[in-house]
Design goal:
This protein is 42% helix and 16% strand. The chain has six helices and five strands. 34% of the residues are buried. It has one domain: Response regulator (Rossmann fold). The protein has a five-stranded parallel sheet, with helices on both faces. The chain is an alpha/beta fold. Helix 3 runs parallel beside helix 4. Helix 1 links the parallel strand 1 and strand 2. The longest helix has 18 residues. This is Response regulator. Keywords: Phosphoprotein. It holds the Pfam family Response_reg.
Protein backbone atom coordinates (compact mmCIF):
# COMPACT_ATOMS: atom_id res chain seq x y z
CA UNK A 1 0.00 0.00 0.00
CA UNK A 2 1.43 3.34 -1.08
CA UNK A 3 1.42 6.06 1.53
CA UNK A 4 -1.02 8.85 0.63
CA UNK A 5 -0.16 12.26 2.07
CA UNK A 6 -2.08 15.41 2.91
CA UNK A 7 -0.15 18.67 2.50
CA UNK A 8 -1.16 22.04 3.92
CA UNK A 9 0.56 25.21 2.69
CA UNK A 10 0.03 28.47 4.54
CA UNK A 11 2.35 31.29 5.59
CA UNK A 12 0.62 31.64 8.97
CA UNK A 13 1.89 29.28 11.68
CA UNK A 14 -1.40 29.40 13.63
CA UNK A 15 -3.32 28.23 10.55
CA UNK A 16 -0.92 25.31 10.07
CA UNK A 17 -1.32 24.39 13.75
CA UNK A 18 -5.11 24.53 13.44
CA UNK A 19 -5.08 22.28 10.35
CA UNK A 20 -2.79 19.80 12.13
CA UNK A 21 -5.12 19.77 15.13
CA UNK A 22 -8.30 19.49 13.07
CA UNK A 23 -7.00 16.66 10.84
CA UNK A 24 -5.18 14.75 13.59
CA UNK A 25 -7.69 11.88 13.47
CA UNK A 26 -6.71 11.20 9.85
CA UNK A 27 -2.95 11.18 10.35
CA UNK A 28 -2.67 7.50 11.22
CA UNK A 29 -3.80 6.64 7.69
CA UNK A 30 -2.93 9.85 5.80
CA UNK A 31 0.28 11.48 7.05
CA UNK A 32 0.05 15.26 7.17
CA UNK A 33 2.88 17.50 5.99
CA UNK A 34 2.94 21.26 6.37
CA UNK A 35 4.80 24.02 4.55
CA UNK A 36 4.90 27.77 5.10
CA UNK A 37 5.57 28.70 1.46
CA UNK A 38 5.30 27.36 -2.07
CA UNK A 39 9.07 26.81 -2.15
CA UNK A 40 8.93 24.79 1.08
CA UNK A 41 5.95 22.85 -0.32
CA UNK A 42 8.04 21.90 -3.37
CA UNK A 43 10.71 20.49 -1.03
CA UNK A 44 8.06 18.45 0.79
CA UNK A 45 6.75 17.18 -2.55
CA UNK A 46 10.27 16.13 -3.56
CA UNK A 47 10.52 14.06 -0.33
CA UNK A 48 7.10 12.50 -0.90
CA UNK A 49 8.03 11.65 -4.50
CA UNK A 50 11.42 10.24 -3.46
CA UNK A 51 9.62 7.87 -1.07
CA UNK A 52 7.42 6.63 -3.90
CA UNK A 53 4.43 7.99 -1.98
CA UNK A 54 1.46 9.96 -3.29
CA UNK A 55 -0.10 13.33 -2.57
CA UNK A 56 -3.80 12.71 -2.15
CA UNK A 57 -4.83 16.17 -0.98
CA UNK A 58 -3.41 19.65 -0.67
CA UNK A 59 -4.94 22.55 1.23
CA UNK A 60 -3.29 25.78 0.11
CA UNK A 61 -3.74 29.37 1.24
CA UNK A 62 -4.19 31.86 -1.57
CA UNK A 63 -2.55 35.01 -0.17
CA UNK A 64 1.12 34.15 0.41
CA UNK A 65 4.37 36.05 -0.19
CA UNK A 66 6.21 35.53 -3.51
CA UNK A 67 3.69 33.11 -5.05
CA UNK A 68 -0.06 32.94 -4.53
CA UNK A 69 -1.81 29.69 -3.74
CA UNK A 70 -3.54 29.84 -7.11
CA UNK A 71 -0.19 30.13 -8.89
CA UNK A 72 1.28 27.28 -6.86
CA UNK A 73 -1.74 25.04 -7.44
CA UNK A 74 -1.55 25.81 -11.18
CA UNK A 75 2.10 24.71 -11.14
CA UNK A 76 1.16 21.59 -9.17
CA UNK A 77 -1.60 20.74 -11.62
CA UNK A 78 0.96 20.82 -14.42
CA UNK A 79 3.18 18.19 -12.78
CA UNK A 80 2.33 14.68 -14.02
CA UNK A 81 2.87 12.97 -10.65
CA UNK A 82 0.58 15.45 -8.84
CA UNK A 83 -2.05 16.09 -11.50
CA UNK A 84 -4.57 13.73 -9.89
CA UNK A 85 -4.03 15.10 -6.37
CA UNK A 86 -7.09 16.82 -4.95
CA UNK A 87 -6.57 20.56 -4.53
CA UNK A 88 -8.39 22.83 -2.10
CA UNK A 89 -7.94 26.57 -1.68
CA UNK A 90 -7.96 27.40 2.04
CA UNK A 91 -8.32 31.13 2.41
CA UNK A 92 -10.26 34.02 3.80
CA UNK A 93 -8.95 36.72 1.52
CA UNK A 94 -9.18 35.48 -2.05
CA UNK A 95 -11.50 37.59 -4.14
CA UNK A 96 -13.91 36.24 -6.69
CA UNK A 97 -11.48 36.76 -9.60
CA UNK A 98 -8.67 34.89 -7.81
CA UNK A 99 -11.02 32.05 -6.90
CA UNK A 100 -12.35 31.73 -10.44
CA UNK A 101 -8.78 31.75 -11.77
CA UNK A 102 -7.79 28.98 -9.35
CA UNK A 103 -10.80 26.89 -10.36
CA UNK A 104 -10.17 27.40 -14.07
CA UNK A 105 -6.37 27.18 -14.12
CA UNK A 106 -5.31 25.11 -11.13
CA UNK A 107 -7.72 22.19 -11.26
CA UNK A 108 -9.18 23.32 -7.95
CA UNK A 109 -11.52 20.74 -6.40
CA UNK A 110 -12.74 22.60 -3.34
CA UNK A 111 -12.77 25.96 -1.57
CA UNK A 112 -12.55 26.23 2.22
CA UNK A 113 -13.05 29.69 3.68
CA UNK A 114 -11.34 30.87 6.83
CA UNK A 115 -12.39 30.52 9.53
CA UNK A 116 -13.57 26.96 9.09
CA UNK A 117 -15.01 24.48 11.55
CA UNK A 118 -13.16 21.30 12.45
CA UNK A 119 -16.09 19.23 11.20
CA UNK A 120 -16.19 21.18 7.93
CA UNK A 121 -12.47 20.69 7.29
CA UNK A 122 -12.68 16.98 8.17
CA UNK A 123 -15.66 16.48 5.87
CA UNK A 124 -13.87 18.25 3.02
CA UNK A 125 -10.76 16.12 3.56
CA UNK A 126 -12.77 12.90 3.68
CA UNK A 127 -14.74 13.76 0.57
CA UNK A 128 -11.67 14.76 -1.43
CA UNK A 129 -9.58 11.78 -0.31
CA UNK A 130 -12.47 9.43 -1.10
CA UNK A 131 -12.56 10.99 -4.59
CA UNK A 132 -8.80 10.47 -4.87
CA UNK A 133 -8.89 6.79 -3.85
CA UNK A 134 -11.73 6.12 -6.28
CA UNK A 135 -10.16 8.01 -9.18
CA UNK A 136 -6.85 6.20 -8.73
CA UNK A 137 -8.54 2.77 -8.40
CA UNK A 138 -6.68 2.22 -5.15
CA UNK A 139 -7.75 -0.74 -3.02
CA UNK A 140 -10.30 0.96 -0.74
CA UNK A 141 -10.18 -1.53 2.12
CA UNK A 142 -7.44 0.22 4.15
CA UNK A 143 -9.40 3.47 3.97
CA UNK A 144 -12.95 2.29 4.72
CA UNK A 145 -12.81 3.19 8.42
CA UNK A 146 -11.79 6.79 7.86
CA UNK A 147 -13.26 7.82 4.49
CA UNK A 148 -16.73 7.55 2.95
CA UNK A 149 -17.23 3.80 3.32
CA UNK A 150 -20.50 3.82 1.37
CA UNK A 151 -18.95 5.43 -1.70
CA UNK A 152 -15.87 3.21 -1.46
CA UNK A 153 -18.03 0.08 -1.19
CA UNK A 154 -20.16 1.16 -4.18
CA UNK A 155 -16.99 1.71 -6.20
CA UNK A 156 -15.61 -1.68 -5.15
CA UNK A 157 -18.88 -3.36 -6.14
CA UNK A 158 -18.83 -1.68 -9.56
CA UNK A 159 -15.23 -2.79 -10.08
CA UNK A 160 -16.17 -6.36 -9.14
CA UNK A 161 -13.99 -6.39 -6.03
CA UNK A 162 -16.97 -7.38 -3.90
CA UNK A 163 -20.27 -9.04 -4.75
CA UNK A 164 -23.75 -8.92 -3.26
CA UNK A 165 -23.83 -12.68 -2.62
Amino acid sequence: MNQIYILCVDDEADVLEAVERDLATMEEVFPLEIASSADEARQVLERIDAQGAELGLIFCDHVMPKETGGEFLSWLDGQPQWKRSRKALLTGQAGLEATVSAINNAGLDFYVSKPWTQEGLLQAAKRLLTDYVISRNIDPLPYMSILDATRLAEHSYKRGLISDT
